[in-house]
Amino acid sequence: MSYDQSRSENPGKDAASTVIVVIGASGDLAKKKTYPALFGLFRNGFLPDRVHIIGYARSKLDKEAFRARITSEKLKDAPKEQLAQFLDICDYVSGQYGSADDFGTLNKVIEHHEARFLDQAKQTNSGVNNDRRVRVFYMATPPSVFVPVAKSIKAGAYSPDAHNRIVIEKPFGRDLATSRQFSEEFTQLYRENEIYRIDHYLGKEMVKNMPIIRFANLFFESIWNREHIDNVQITFKEAFGTQGRGGYFDEYGVIRDVMQNHMVQMLCVMAMEKPRSLDADDVRSAKADLLRSIPPIKLEDVILGQYTASADGKEPGYTDDKTVPEGSLCATYASMVLFINNERWRGVPIIMKAGKAMDEAKVEVRVQFKDVTDPLYQNIARNELIARVGPTEAVYLKIMNKRPGLVNEPVISELDLSYRRRYSDAKIPEAYEALLLEILAGDQSHFIRGDELDAAWEIFTPLLHQIENEKIKPRPYAYGTRGPEGADDFIQKYGYKRRSQAYHWPTDLGRPIQEVAKEYAEKNLKS
């Protein structure tokens, strides 16, 4: 569903009212992600016509103090007139997370706005659907209060006559047992079609693009199997450390933080079988089927690392963070290999690599094809399809091409689709904007279903327990490097081949084609 299609097909468009409640509205997540995403939708005209946004948190704030808080960072440079209009549809209610009475007070505020919108509709004879009222409860709170908040919503602010949507952020538990307990408590309160488990990477443009690359291109789908693919790498590298948030990170580590969720979701859209349709349940069933075919990861297929201070001493190590417990064995880096036991992928190593304080920031999926059999030419590299999720979106296919000139020599080149170059005028929405729009539309295609979550935890839980029970010590690596010693050899052991000739992806592939063409012309005119 495109940005424009979402607007026209949005069930909230003809709803009598849409009320969005941001729970934890005074916190960092709301300030940095939720409210900026809502404002992005507002300024581009994608929110429903009859919408009101209510912040709810424990902090005692008046309306002005609350508005100052949510505009103090990401929205401080927003156009003043549009921001003022946005703030006019924003309110704030203070209350406890575990109090049904406080949520009853919130419910009265919601009902006030619902009645106001209905009166407006009657006066303007707009023909809205009086039976369609949408209530979105977005939990921008710590996981520890998810269940108390869910119970309070159900007791005090849930409306059986409205479309209720409960949005929760990862992490969803720490292992299979805690995740199942969490899911059981939620599903006792709400139907599965009311629960939106949000993983913002599913809202990333390139993650959404992967199924189209696969299923809408005959030549890719015909070679998307173990006969032609040697290995797959999924990489999630961050160029910064925990930056004073080590106490939070230490509770989870890199495997729980990004691998069990973000990276597994990228694997799903890359490797799943063709869904029966684009219906949300069909898509999520295809992903769940894939996850159920992956056996638990073995410790011998894993390397763990923890970053130390940078070589020049300018950047601190992980345990130098005062919020990190002394002697912490928390992994800030992990490389691991898993296998998919189905007909398409059997025997193909899926290599996952994630780390903080690395040499660069990069999130991508790299599919490396097998060697050319009986090659005519020497020194040729493998073909690779790379889908780069960030920091800039791109798809490029590495191929062998003739080196220009009076030589008959192959050289690595690329068929490129850098979004900044091909779609220089396109506005790509932020992941949270795209997902919030889908919540309003009632589309769960890019949200995680309970059985899907269960299957993902079954892959990782035995490994996580073994690491913790045996107190596995991570290998050190300096801040700003490629990872711990032996990490590259580990990956190559599973079949990944580094290029046999030098190759650098040109930096101008990330620039608009008009700019590149102009620079090229000017350079050649001078010469």
Automatic annotation (TrEMBL):
Residues 21-209 form the Glucose-6-phosphate dehydrogenase NAD-binding domain. The keyword Metal-binding does not apply. Transmembrane segments: none annotated. Keywords: Carbohydrate metabolism, Glucose metabolism, NADP, Oxidoreductase. Pathway: Carbohydrate degradation; pentose phosphate pathway; D-ribulose 5-phosphate from D-glucose 6-phosphate (oxidative stage): step 1/3. Coiled coil: none annotated. Residues 212-497 form the Glucose-6-phosphate dehydrogenase C-terminal domain. It catalyses: D-glucose 6-phosphate + NADP(+) = 6-phospho-D-glucono-1,5-lactone + NADPH + H(+). One of its GO terms (biological process) is pentose-phosphate shunt, oxidative branch. Belongs to the glucose-6-phosphate dehydrogenase family. It comes from Dimargaris cristalligena. Catalyzes the rate-limiting step of the oxidative pentose-phosphate pathway, which represents a route for the dissimilation of carbohydrates besides glycolysis. Its EC number is 1.1.1.49. The keyword NADP applies. This is Glucose-6-phosphate 1-dehydrogenase. It is an enzyme of class 1 (oxidoreductase). One of its GO terms (cellular component) is cytosol. One of its GO terms (molecular function) is NADP binding. It comes from the Eukaryota. Gene3D superfamilies: Dihydrodipicolinate Reductase, domain 2 (3.30.360.10), NAD(P)-binding Rossmann-like Domain (3.40.50.720).
